[in-house]
Amino acid sequence: MVVSCLIATMAFQVGVNPPGGVWQDDYLLDSQGDPVSQFDIHKAGESIFADNHPLGYGHFLVANTTALITSLSIILLIKSV
């Protein structure tokens, strides 16, 4: 039960604050004030890891979601007994 609670807590926290952090502000202009290309635009709150490594972030999301659902299921199963 304790291990399941710990895994659920870690999985939730990593989902809220992903590795690499999140963009803190919107960037539409470069340092000289010129517009950047459409591909360099990011928005505040988006994951930096997802922008830099989309495939790895997808694998991370699957693993994190699986850990969270599995640990919550185990907690509910133990509590029902």
UniProtKB/TrEMBL annotation:
It is found in: Membrane. Residues 1-78 form the PGG domain. Pfam families: PGG. InterPro entries: PGG_dom (IPR026961). One of its GO terms (cellular component) is plasma membrane. This is Ankyrin repeat-containing BDA1-like. It is a multi-pass membrane protein. The keyword Aminoacyl-tRNA synthetase does not apply. The chain crosses the membrane at residues 57-78. Keywords: ANK repeat, Membrane, Repeat, Transmembrane, Transmembrane helix.
